[in-house]
Specification:
The complex is a heterodimer. Chain A is mainly α. Chain A has helices at residues 3-11, 17-36, 39-56, 66-84, 90-95, 117-123, 127-138, 143-150, 154-176. Chain A contains 9 helices and no strands. Chain B is elongated, with a radius of gyration of 49 Å. Chain B starts with 8 loop residues before the first helix and ends with a strand. The chains are: A mainly alpha, B alpha+beta.
Chain lengths: 177, 648
């Protein structure tokens, strides 16, 4: 066992909810905002994702591949938001709880999420291509984690990433003109 | 690698290829300029995505929110679990130790608050914290024997008098208490005799050597040290009240008020009366004779604690009257039916004597009532035992058995009679026999992310939860269907709009259009679809858009781009572009209007030689071309633009 394998073994240990929340909240927030394009909706979806993730940590349990699980939850919620918008189902309208957000931030904290040319180019992509491109290049997930979080296979994730990069480049050139 | 494999460029960029394949791709990139251009494009796209802006919420905000999360879901503190695991036997390498053994998830220190001056009128005395004393319920009759166990004390077994407090319900049924006491007079007498024997035995044990200092508990008060029999210097004393004790016989049970807790001011006097008087100083206080400091002067600090304080049991043996009252009260509580308050029973009904004996053999942790009066039923598969079969269940079972027998006999008259009887017996019996605990459970299927290094864990869900959940879901489904039928919802309107959009789109292709200015250049609408070739369409059937400006330029790779800057909202209008037989191109968009001035300001260029508006409604442009070219049509957003690319 060399040093690299030891470091990798340490880094692959299942993180706790505390470390995930502190290290990934900004990343998830930016990821969801890039997916849905709405800051308020991204804030709500991000907190809902961590609420759902916290249920996996109750009673001293730990999920396997917690980081990929967190991104999977966020992706599912962002997909629902992109598909239905702010429309809520009947069950949600009847039983959803209106809770105040737990994370507070100022306007300058999210200045980096302002819409720019790259964001416009991202909005022209399909949702699946956007997810894979953001998960790998924006969030820094590996191929296996990207595939796990996107709900597809590893080879399919590689193909989707290649296609997404080409489409993003074309759309970026269109918009930049 | 000889053959171009553009799909391998992305994994090569991300380092996902094996070393051999990566080496081949690298060699190929040196010799193939087209693959090199594609690789640069992929690299550029990846870099641009990596450079996207991110949120930077301060860590202090996240820590406060994390506390709320952990409090809501009762999560464990995970800061320590993320530390590096214990080092192996040979130790971690230096690189790992330096980087990984640093503290992880360190909460930032809160900023020190500036001292503030107290408000006016508040700088008098510090506020004392409010201490809430826990509410202790009165002991039930079933709990009384357990509470009666004497606590280990220095001077011998001293009963706990905490249960001698008169509960409020005692005043509710005094006549029943008296009646039960009269019936139990012989038992009370025997109990008194037994307690007297225990008292004598306790006195004999009091003369035993003292335990070590560390086992004696807190230092007793001076009066207690002087009064404890058997200690050096303590006077010998005898219970002189024995002479005045009534002879054995029927004992008139005292009234319940006789065991009322005395007032604190009377407690010392009562204790001094019970204490023996040494020799000829019977009239003097025994504590005064023993030289208890401060007692004679009336110092309240040295007074013995009242007997109703359960935390500090009196070191002296209780008097016979008190013991008799306690025993009598215990018997009475066993006899008196449990009073109810607004239909709710205050405690469980006591069991008969045989049942009580059986309950003493019940293992710890199991309610004794489950084993009382009846046989237990072992549940197959559950491993646990149902509560005892009640007489009501036996009645119900007998009724059911008779019901089935009659059904087999097919006797009409008896069937009707017994059916009526069983209807009256079954519900009561079955409802009374329902178990109070659900004995059977089955594992539930968990999410694939659940588990851990030790394997998947199984949670056990009661069986009753499954049909209850199904029933709940069915009820919710019925409610949802009903509400969806009654309330207006969006899908219908959406489908209607889609139909209208399709209809409008069809009208674009079939509606008659005004004749073009040139007879040899028919409009696509007038001549129909066959008159156009290479038709390209974009948009979703919207309307209300207006052309703000037109611009065109030669883009990369010889592409001539014509851009219409649009203003409007909603779905984008449907745009159709096709090539007519005479070589001209027609751009038709009924949902877009254009000002002739805007069209006049635009100068043709590239392959477009002329542009003319056909008709008065919508956008109907005839584009004269210098040569046949390929083209594409696309909408861009933010701001909305219609882009036409003419290729070579």
């Amino acid at each position: 066992m060399n040093e690299l394998s030891m470091v990798l073994a340490v880094s692959q240990a299942t993180p706790s909810f505390d470390s995930l929340f502190l290290t990934e909240f900004n990343q998830i927030f930016g990821y969801v905002q890039r997916l849905v394009g709405d800051l308020a909706a991204a804030h709500r979806l991000t907190e809902e994702s961590f609420h759902q993730l916290a249920r996996y940590y109750r009673k001293g349990r730990k999920p396997i591949e917690a980081r990929a699980l967190l991104y999977l939850i966020a992706t599912q919620r962002a997909r629902e938001q992109a598909r239905k918008g702010d429309k809520r189902s009947l069950v949600q309208r009847l039983f959803a709880r209106g809770e105040a957000p737990l994370v507070e931030f100022a306007a300058e904290d999210t200045r980096g999420l302002a819409t720019d040319t790259s964001q416009r180019a991202l909005s022209t992509l399909e949702f699946g291509s956007r997810v894979v491109l953001l998960l790998h290049d924006y969030c820094g997930l590996s191929y296996s984690e990207t595939a796990r979080a996107a709900g597809i296979g590893k080879s399919a994730a590689a193909r989707e990433l290649d296609r997404a990069r080409h489409e993003f480049k074309q759309a970026y050139d269109y918009i930049k003109f | 690698m000889v053959k171009c494999q553009p799909r391998a460029l992305t994994p090569y960029l991300d380092g996902e290829l094996s070393p051999d394949v990566a080496r081949q791709v690298e060699e190929h990139l040196r010799t193939c300029p087209s693959c090199g251009a594609v690789f640069d494009e992929v690299t550029n796209a990846a870099d641009r995505v990596r450079q996207l802006g991110r949120a930077k919420i301060p860590e202090a905000q996240l820590w406060s929110a994390l506390d709320d999360f952990k409090a809501r879901y009762q999560l464990e503190d995970g800061a320590e679990s993320d530390r590096i695991p214990p080092a192996p036997q040979h130790g971690w390498p230096p690189a790992v130790t330096e980087e990984a053994q640093r503290p992880f998830l360190v909460r930032p220190e809160p900023e020190p608050q500036q001292p503030t001056l107290p408000a006016m009128g508040s700088a008098t005395a510090p506020e004392l914290p409010l201490v809430e004393s826990p509410l202790v319920e009165d002991p039930t009759p079933a709990e009384l024997p357990a509470a009666e166990a004497p606590a280990p004390a220095v001077a011998g077994p001293v009963p706990d008098f905490s249960h001698t407090l008169t509960p409020p319900w005692m005043a509710l049924r005094p006549e029943e208490i008296d009646a039960a006491a009269d019936e139990e007079a012989p038992e009370i007498e025997a109990a008194i005799a037994r307690l007297q024997a225990e008292e004598d035995e306790a006195d004999a044990q009091a003369t035993a050597p003292m335990p070590p200092e560390e086992l004696r508990g807190p230092t007793p008060a001076p009066w207690f040290a002087a009064w404890t029999p058997g200690r050096p210097g303590a006077p010998e004393w005898t219970d002189q009240d024995d002479a005045t004790e009534p002879a054995p016989g029927p004992v008139e049970p005292p009234a319940p008020t006789a065991i009322e807790p005395p007032a604190p001011s009377n407690a010392p006097a009562a204790r001094s009366d019970q204490a023996p008087a040494p020799d000829d100083e019977a009239s003097a206080s025994p504590l005064e004779h023993m030289g208890a400091p401060g007692f004679q002067a009336g110092g309240i600090d040295e007074l013995p604690p009242p007997i109703w304080v359960s935390e500090q049991a009196s070191p002296s043996a209780p008097s016979d009257e008190v013991l008799a009252a306690v025993e009598k009260m215990r018997r009475q509580l066993d006899r008196v039916p449990a009073p109810t308050t607004s239909g709710r029973r205050l405690w469980r009904r006591s069991q008969p004597a045989a049942a009580s004996d059986a309950a003493e053999t019940v293992p710890a942790g199991r309610p004794a009532e489950d084993f009382a009066a009846g046989s237990d039923v072992a549940v197959a598969g559950g491993g646990r035992r149902l509560p005892a079969v009640t007489p009501a269940l036996a009645t119900a079972a007998a009724a059911l058995r008779r019901w089935l027998d009659v059904a087999a006999d097919n006797s009409r008259g008896a069937w009707t009679t017994l059916q009526r009887q069983s209807r009256a017996a079954l519900p009561q019996g079955l409802f009374a026999a329902l178990p109070r605990r659900l004995p059977i459970s089955r594992p539930s299927r968990e999410d694939e992310f659940e588990g851990g290094t030790e394997g998947r864990r199984r949670t056990r869900v009661p069986v009753i939860a499954i049909p209850a959940a199904i029933g709940g879901l069915l009820a919710l489904g019925l409610i949802a269907v009903g509400l969806f039928v009654l309330l207006p919802h969006h899908p219908k309107s959406t489908s209607v709009s889609h139909r209208s959009a399709a209809a409008s789109h069809a009208s674009v292709a079939t509606a008659p259009q005004p004749a073009p200015s040139h007879a040899s250049a028919p409009t696509p609408a007038a001549t129909g679809a066959p008159s156009l070739q290479q038709v390209s369409t974009a948009g979703q059937g919207g309307s209300g858009y207006q052309v703000l400006g037109m611009r065109a330029a030669l883009h990369t790779d010889g592409v001539y781009r014509l851009v219409f800057d649009l203003q409007g909202a909603g779905p984008r209008p449907t745009v159709t572009l096709g090539r007519a037989a005479d070589g001209s191109y027609y751009l038709v968009a009924p949902g877009i209007t254009i000002d002739p001035a805007v069209l006049a300001r635009w100068a043709p260029g590239g392959p477009v030689s002329s542009v003319a508006q056909q008709g008065s409604s919508g956008l109907q442009l005839r584009l004269g071309m210098t040569r046949p070219v390929s083209y594409s049509l696309i909408y861009l957003s933010a701001p909305t633009r219609l882009v036409i690319d003419f290729g070579s």
